[in-house]
């Protein structure tokens, strides 16, 4: 009981978040404010505010009004706002009125989705793009030169095409 040979049971925050059970917000809980967790969250109740989580599950009884940011989001309930996640899944009972920014989107038949959907590329997909267009025309209508967006060699174009 009073042994001086105590073992160190503390763990780092990242390891603790991975091993911890998900945070559960029950169906009778109403939250007005922001939520942030390094681990997983399951929402069964109502949230008015922004949510940040590693993995977020919004059950069929849940209502969320606000912005969501997570690695993975599974929605079976109602969401109004903005969703930014690598993987977004809308189950058949989902009702989403939001702008979705995602890498992968799955929508089951029967799900309701209204809003804009944009793909954000993974880190390995980001490449600088070079777009260049050069048009020069002589006032006498002789010719014009146009370069392609890929930076290939210039292609002669008739004056009527350049205008």
Question: Quick check: average pLDDT?
Answer: 78
Q: How many beta-strand runs?
A: 14
**Low-pLDDT segments, ≥5 res:** 6-13, 143-163
Q: Helix coverage percent of residues?
A: under 10%
Largest sheet: 11 strands, parallel
SSE pattern, N- to C-terminal: HEEEEEEEEEEEEEEH
Number of domains: 2
Number of helices: 2
How much strand?
over 45%
Shape: globular
Q: What does this protein structure show overall?
A:
The chain has 163 residues and is mainly beta. The chain has 2 domains: 13-119; 128-163, no CATH class. Helix content is 7%, strand content 48%. It contains 2 helices and 14 strands, in the order H-E-E-E-E-E-E-E-E-E-E-E-E-E-E-H. It has helices spanning 13-19, 159-162; strands at residues 23-25, 30-32, 35-36, 40-43, 46-48, 51-58, 63-75, 78-90, 95-107, 112-114, 117-119, 136-137, 143-146, 155-158. The strands form 2 sheets. Strands 1, 2, 3, 4, 5, 6, 7, 8, 9, 10 and 11 form an 11-stranded parallel sheet that branches. Strand 12 (136-137) and strand 13 form a beta hairpin. The longest helix has 7 residues, at 13-19. The N and C termini lie far apart (90 Å). Residues 6-13 and 143-163 have low confidence and may be disordered.
